[in-house]
What does this fold into?
Amino acid sequence: MLVSSRKMLREARANKQAIFAFNVYNLESAQAVVRAAEKIGKPIIVQASQKSLQYAGMENLAYIVHSLAQSASIPVVFHLDHGKDLSFVERAIRSRLFTSIMYDGSSLTLEENIKNTARVVKMAHRARVEVEAELGVVGTASGNKAVKIEYTDPAQAKEFVGKTKCDSLAVSFGNIHGAKTANEKLNFEVLKEIAQAIDIPLVFHGASHSTQAEIEKARTLGVAKINIDTQLKQAFFVAIKKNSDADDPRLLLGAARDAMEKEAYRLLTY
It folds into this structure.
């Protein structure tokens, strides 16, 4: 069933639990994560980034996820991940295809981020859509280049949430998008201070290849949503390469789907 994330995430934070959110791109990736969640009997957030939706077509990918959610035996949230363009985010809200959206204004000044996020929240709440925002700079891995990270400031987080009324907040505490690097070090003291400053669910972006201990620690410090993308993409690519001699696209993509399902299931056991 397709559901809102509001109650799900608030209960997760209150109980020191977290919901896994998996990025999807096509039929096979969406099937993989929903099947894994059904096997283990846990709710799930299926999410697609602005770039993925622009590539596949917002309605095309949404209808795949809706179809899977409607027949699923577990609660499924459909979430817009990293919506950066206000026009695209507002289009997603108006479409009524998403039960949750993220507006990412983290590259803007604090004042601009607050202004734009508050605008999105006002529009989304009228449509009964939950809003995730981002404050601080969650770095992105790029080869051996240094990763820019800017921790979320707890005082700014309190101001931001108070002024925008967002429902959840993606925070920066040493986490990075992309493949985990040797230099990545999560700062749980920063996360603890953020959690003490605000009481809404926190979101852990770039959680791929984090250890079970790190994920469990994050749960105890207010994180209610765990984002996984790179880890499933890597499982997909490994399976594609391994089965590259397949003479039927269904065999090739089916193997990739099964590999992603196996990895998603493993994570859901955490």
